[in-house]
Specification:
The structure is a single chain. The protein is α+β, with helices and mostly antiparallel strands. Helix content is about 30%, strand content about 15%. β12 and β13 form a beta hairpin.
């Protein structure tokens, strides 16, 4: 008997292997944009932030363009010169035919084969590059389309009802500790109505021309388009015969701890010792989550007759990382207190550069270990309560086994800026320049922005005392303190109460809240142009 949509979203067990081919799940995953439950797996992304022109002809043209990007088959073109999309250009239509919104079902259906291929490959880095398999979706590109609350308003459509989403990120600044006056000019001067993300591998056919063609099409039917470019950074491991792994600009391993939605993925990681295999083991963190952690019903899609239409709320934030400050400040603290500088940095992050936890995890596991909690470090001596990974994912500090209403988010960030020269293991090569503009294009999915992202930032990262009775301190990486207040951190392994002044390492340069609707909703935008 098919499950209802709410039953599917609230089921706390991971999605079983056969479920994607069953009624209900099949309809949901065929209508859900990729890169929510399953990452798209591409190494590069171009982010097109759109500020709409309120002219009705241009809004109509933009709806048609979004509908075309969401519909398989030939790229639809108008013959008239006033469409604002392609003005009848056959060449443009052929160029953009490679760009499509890919459903979750297409990505997930090939992930098992991709993991099997990775398991068979040698650990030799050269051969890893030579034997890199075709992308899981079989496509050269994938597209995501998201609307802000003002975008829904411009299209004269009812916006999803998340209160933080409807307010927009700028109006939440006081809660988050944001400083909109320090945003980059474009973000400060424009209303952001939509976000279109094109993700691809460098081996894709002619990415520069394809992306420029899309920008030209978007320019023709919007008031302003701002572009950001993201890329996965990879470190060459310090240990021999290990494959490269993803890092963030400070040089620490990234994308380790993520919610897991599929039984197959859970079992794959459990067999490798990366996570605990069962939810009833309270001394080890269980990484699985119900679909309702990330998905909500897409009411507009449901009204169109799609009984399993879902979407997800996204937070996009451009975060500049002051890499030189990070290393200078930690070197200075280490020198002043006779400590090892890397130890100080590790205690601020909560893991070693290769991702190894500072507390006991699975025996024999290294940097990809996620099978741990903090039950063996109740006083925060090994991993400080203020460490970034403990602040934002406190595991057993708050609740040994997360339930459906937890605050986790699904992170889909990429790095931006020039690639820094790096040592084996990921650390940037010295000397470092303060002029380097690098950071994260932070992107996360969730079912409730206020209870998930905003809770993490405002209630856990920013406060000095979010664990009652524990000397937590502000998150040294992303914690934001009021203007004029000195930021201090806890760093010493022998005295958790000892503090030191610390600079701002991450600076918000702009962003917005979005909703990624169902594919069926996007396809039907072209029909609502009268």
């Amino acid at each position: 008997m098919p499950q209802t949509l709410l039953q599917i979203l609230n089921d706390e067990e991971p999605v079983q292997r056969e479920a994607p081919d069953q009624a209900g799940y099949r309809e949901l995953f065929a209508d859900l944009q990729a890169n929510i439950l399953t990452p798209h797996g591409f190494d590069c992304s171009r982010y097109f932030l759109l500020s709409f022109d309120r002219d009705k002809k241009k809004l109509r043209a933009l709806k048609l363009l979004i509908s075309a990007l969401s519909t398989p088959g030939e790229y639809p073109l108008e013959s008239g010169g006033n469409s604002g999309v392609a003005q009848g250009s056959v060449a443009l239509g052929q160029q953009l035919a490679a760009l499509r919104v890919i459903p979750e079902h297409d990505i997930y259906a090939r992930r098992g084969a991709e993991r099997s291929a990775k398991a068979r490959r040698t650990s030799s880095r050269a051969l890893v590059e030579q034997e890199r398999p075709q992308h899981a979706s079989g496509a050269a590109y994938t597209v995501n389309v998201m609307l802000s609350a003002t975008g829904y308003q411009a299209f004269e459509l009812q916006a999803p009802d998340d209160s933080a989403f409807r307010s927009g990120m700028a109006r939440q600044a006081s809660r988050l500790g944001d400083r909109p006056d320090r945003f980059e000019d474009w973000y400060r001067e424009h209303v952001i109505d939509a976000l279109v993300i094109v993700s691809y591998d460098e081996q894709a056919p002619d990415p520069p021309a394809t992306l420029e063609q899309l920008k030209a099409a978007l320019d023709a039917c919007t008031a302003s388009v701002h572009c950001e470019s993201g890329k996965v950074l990879r470190a060459v491991p310090a240990a021999p015969n290990e494959p490269p792994y993803a890092i963030e600009p400070f040089g620490y391993r990234d994308a380790i701890s993520q919610p897991i939605f599929y039984e197959e993925h859970r079992d794959y990681l459990a067999q490798r010792g990366r996570i605990s295999p069962r939810r009833d083991q309270p001394t080890r963190f269980e990484a699985t989550a119900p679909l309702g952690l990330a998905l909500v019903p897409d009411l507009a899609g449901l009204r169109s007759g799609r009984a399993y239409a879902c979407g997800s709320y996204f937070v996009f934030r451009k975060l500049k990382q002051h890499v030189a400050k990070f290393y200078e400040a930690t070197d200075q603290i280490a020198n002043q207190h006779g400590l090892d500088a890397e130890l100080v940095r590790n205690r601020l992050i909560g893991r070693k550069p290769d991702g190894t936890p500072l507390v006991d995890g699975s025996p024999g596991r290294g940097g990809d270990d996620n099978a741990f909690d903090f039950s063996n470090d109740l006083e925060g001596q090994r991993c400080p309560f203020s460490a970034h990974v403990r602040k934002l994912n406190p595991r057993s500090d708050v609740n040994p086994i997360y339930a459906a209403g937890d605050s986790r988010i699904v992170r889909r960030a990429m790095s931006y800026g020039p690639e820094l020269a790096r040592e084996p293991g990921g650390a940037p090569r010295r000397p470092l320049s303060h002029a380097q503009d690098v950071g994260l294009l932070f992107l996360c999915a969730q079912a409730n922005i206020g209870q998930q992202f905003e809770h993490l930032q405002a209630s856990w990262a920013n406060p000095y005392d979010h664990l009652r009775g524990k000397p937590t301190g502000v998150d040294p990486i992303i914690g934001q303190v009021p203007n004029g207040v000195e930021k201090t951190i806890r760093f010493h392994p022998d005295d958790p109460s000892q503090t030191a002044p610390f600079p701002e390492l991450v600076e918000l340069k702009g962003g917005e809240y979005f909703f990624a609707p169902s594919i069926g909703f996007l396809q039907q935008l072209g029909a609502s142009t009268d």
